[in-house]
Design brief:
Helices cover 30% and strands 27% of the residues. It has 5 helices and 10 strands, in the order βββαβββαααβαβββ. It is globular and about 45 Å long. The mean pLDDT is 87. The structure holds adenosine-5'-diphosphate.
Length: 220
C-alpha cells in the first residue's frame, strides 16, 4: 500500500524557526496531492521529511503501515524529482536511467528490459538513449530525470516546484507527464507549488498551507 499518513508532524530548524506545525494528514494510495501556498510556508520541508532528506523534530510518517521515521531515504520506496535533475552529464541517457537500478544490484537483463521496454517509451526518449546528457535539451533532461525516477517503480513520487522552474510551457509539459505517471502507472504523487494555476488540474487533492499549517483541503 502506498498511502501516506502523517501524525502530529513537527519541524523546528536548529535556529528555532518552526517550519511545520503539528501536521496530521492521510493521503490515499494512488492520489495526486498538491501542496499549495506562498513561498516559505513549509511545503518543501514536508516533502523533504517524507523523502528522508530532512530530520523530523517530532511526529510520525507512515507509508502504508510502515513507520518511515528511521528508514534510510534509499529504502523508502520513494522517488524524488530534484531541482537540478541530478543527472550525470558525461554519461548517456541510458546509463542515467539505469543508474538507480544498478545501485539496487538488479541483473543486467532486467535493467536492460526495464530501461528499453519501459519508461523511455512512455517518455518518448527512445531515440536519444545513446546521447550524452550534455547535448540534450532541457525538456529532454526533465523527462530523463522523471524516467529515472519511475523506472525504479517507486510507490510515491515527490516533486518540488523547483524541478520545473523554467518557463510556463515546460511546466505545463511536466504537469502532463506527472499526471500520466500518476494515472497510468498508479504511482502516488506529492507535488509542491506556489502557482495557483497548477492547482486547477482535475483529479488532484489540493492541500493549502500557510505558516506551517494546513488551512484548506479540497478535491478538484
Ligand atoms: P516552501 O517550500 O513553502 O517555500 P520551505 O519548506 O522551503 O518553504 O521553508 C519553510 C520555512 O523554513 C521558510 O521560512 C524557510 O526560510 C525556513 N527554512 C528552511 N530551511 C531552513 C533551515 N535549514 N534553517 C532555518 N530555516 C529554514
Amino acid at each position: 500500500m502506498a498511502s501516506i499518513t502523517l501524525e502530529n508532524l513537527n519541524k523546528t530548524y536548529p535556529n528555532g524557526f518552526v517550519s511545520v506545525k503539528n501536521l496530521s494528514l492521510h493521503i490515499e494510495d494512488g492520489e495526486f496531492v498538491t501542496f499549495f501556498g506562498p513561498s516559505g510556508c513549509g511545503k518543501s520541508t514536508i516533502l523533504r521529511m517524507i523523502g528522508g532528506m530532512e530530520d523530523i523534530t517530532s511526529g510520525e510518517i507512515y507509508l502504508g503501515k510502515d513507520l518511515l521515521n528511521d528508514i534510510l531515504p534509499r529504502d523508502r520506496s520513494l522517488a524524488m524529482a530534484f531541482q537540478n535533475y541530478q543527472l550525470y552529464s558525461h554519461l548517456n541517457v541510458y546509463d542515467n536511467i539505469a543508474l538507480g537500478l544498478r545501485l539496487r544490484n538488479l541483473p543486467r537483463q532486467i535493467i536492460d528490459s526495464r530501461v528499453k521496454n519501459g519508461q523511455h517509451i512512455f517518455f518518448n526518449i527512445t531515440d536519444i538513449l545513446e546521447k550524452k546528457i550534455r547535448v540534450i535539451n532541457e525538456a529532454q533532461k526533465q523527462r530523463v530525470a522523471l524516467g529515472r525516477a519511475v523506472v525504479c517503480k517507486p510507490k510515491v513520487l515527490l516533486v518540488d516546484e523547483d524541478f520545473a522552474r523554467q518557463n510556463e510551457h515546460r511546466r505545463k509539459e511536466m504537469m502532463r507527464d506527472i499526471r500520466r505517471i500518476n494515472k497510468e502507472l498508479g504511482i502516488t504523487v506529492l507535488y509542491v507549488t506556489n502557482k495557483r494555476g497548477e492547482t486547477e488540474i482535475a483529479g488532484q487533492k489540493v492541500i493549502s498551507m500557510r505558516d506551517g499549517e494546513v488551512v484548506d483541503i479540497k478535491k478538484i
